[in-house]
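pipeline stage [seq->struct] | target=Transglycosylase domain-containing protein | organism=Alkalicoccobacillus plakortidis | residues=627
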Amino acid sequence: MRQSTGWLIIVMLCASFVLLLTRVGAEVNDVETLSEAFDANIELGELFLSSNSYILDSEGRLVSEIYKDSNRIYKSYDQIPKLFIDSFVSTEDRRFYEHEGYDTAGIARAFVANSSSSETEQGGSTITQQLVRNIYLSHEQTYQRKLSEILYSRELEKRYTKDDILELYLNSIFFGHQAYGIESASQYYFSKSSNDLSIAQVAFLTAIPNNPSFFDPINHQERTEDRKGWVLKKMLDEEKITEEEYVEATEETIELAVQKRTDMFPDYVTYIRDEFRDLVAEEDGFNSLLDKATTPEQTDEINKELDERIQRLYDEGIAINTALKPLMQKQAVQSVINHIPNESIQGSLAVIDNESNNLVAITGGKGYEKFNFNRGYQDFRQPGSAIKPLLAYAPYIDVTGVGPSARIDSKNKCYPNGPEDYCPKNYDGKEIGSVTLSQGLASSYNTTAVALLDKTGLETSYSYLDKFHFEKVEDSDRNYLPTALGGFRKGVSPLEMTRAYTTFAHDGAYTPAHGITEVKDGAWNVLYSWDEPETQVWSKATNDKMRQMLAGVVKNGTGRSINVSAPYVGGKTGTSNNYQEIWFVGLTDQYTTGILIGRDQDLEGPKSIESFAKSNPHQKIFNDIMK
């Protein structure tokens, strides 16, 4: 009897061994050889976990968190609190520092437990195996996957230290509600850093990953509390905490302080996300490739690669430092709401700090929602008379050297301009004779501006305007005298106009203003920053004369509603045909601001806002912001 039993056991062991070899063989066929699998599919030396990226204001304060499905705040090993290491090693893998990736005793215990069940209930996984499962494999509980897990774990232990594995593990585990890793979990559930948690709070969080749905603190806190007690007992058994600490932690009441995702200032953040794409495209050579593309397919492929590059940078965890001034941004948004109560009329603006030459505020329109059409930089409209200082007056003064008191014949006349003559008229139909340049600009006489553009010449005048790189100013505009009054085919944006007017604050020199000051990686190395060349558009002497004339617009001309207490205030109003849009672009020594108001364009085309415009809402907005 004893002999037959022995033979039966041997046969069973042999059968089990053959079965094991069969399963291993199948597994090897599935994942190729280990070397092939690692060489072809896995770059263990470049093991990567996505991390959150951030947009910061001018003082380094968080404005917006950037992540898709995984909210992860990556912490290096030396930043991880020892309590978390102790809690997870005690509960998940107490022999972690002894095994080589898998724990034979643990697997045996799991095998015994699962043998009594029709399902695979217990995994016997080490921390290394769990890391492998999180990164490389599925969470399916089968013996076949378990074999892959063991093989991968063994290889991982060869290539990484125990500290490296713990770092990756504690940053990869899922805590529910999109939170991955201990820091994001701590910030989400307790609104504070993992370094500031008590023993009880650490144990509470340690309880969640075992089953994030079942132990969800938001919906089932009592279950999480129960498992917290089990975690604390394990830590006590492993002598990671004292008896006194254990008692104190079990008695501590856990109070959640759930933190919502930080995402403020949608107008500005939307702009920054687009500007970041432009910055990467310029610095990483994508713009050069796009310039050389000869087919739509090539352009699409380059843009796809650029989008992938942007997403990779976001996943790596970058900090986008900006010039945003939150108080000014709030004031800009509120001023548009306050002074444009008409629901069918919209307004947008941009504000640039003249000293730093950075964009400190931008609005996308009333009731703006993130990533929608942003009127501050995407709305291109006829600039009206706001273009006159840039295209007519400054070029004429720079070429001739005359001053604000110089006179120009401004009587009504017709000019050859294509198939038909162009015969400009002043707003009120009044015909004037000879006026000074100051008078012409302050009163915004159309006949004066056209006369100046004609005398300077379209080609010469546009050689000045070209330096501002207006995106939608076309070649056909260059032969069109009505552009002296803002009659462009497509128009300009508030941001473009504001940038151009900063020239008057910089002695005639122009550098495009941006919102991004620098972009840093997780180690605070600078990855990107703008390096825009400065262009001298017109001379300092011309600029001084223009500043004097722009100040005259505010004191004695169409900008008389401006009421700002500052050593210098100047600017120019603009009104497009039939009052479809109204503008004010002005500056003090500290800021330059461009404001556009008008109805959104629809299939019926632009509509007049004449009755509303006469209350000068654009100038009132300027007053609010500059105060």
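stage status: PASS
auto-comment: Residues 67-251 form a domain with the Penicillin binding protein transpeptidase fold fold (CATH 1.10.3810.10). Residues 401 and 542 are 7 Å apart (CA to CA).
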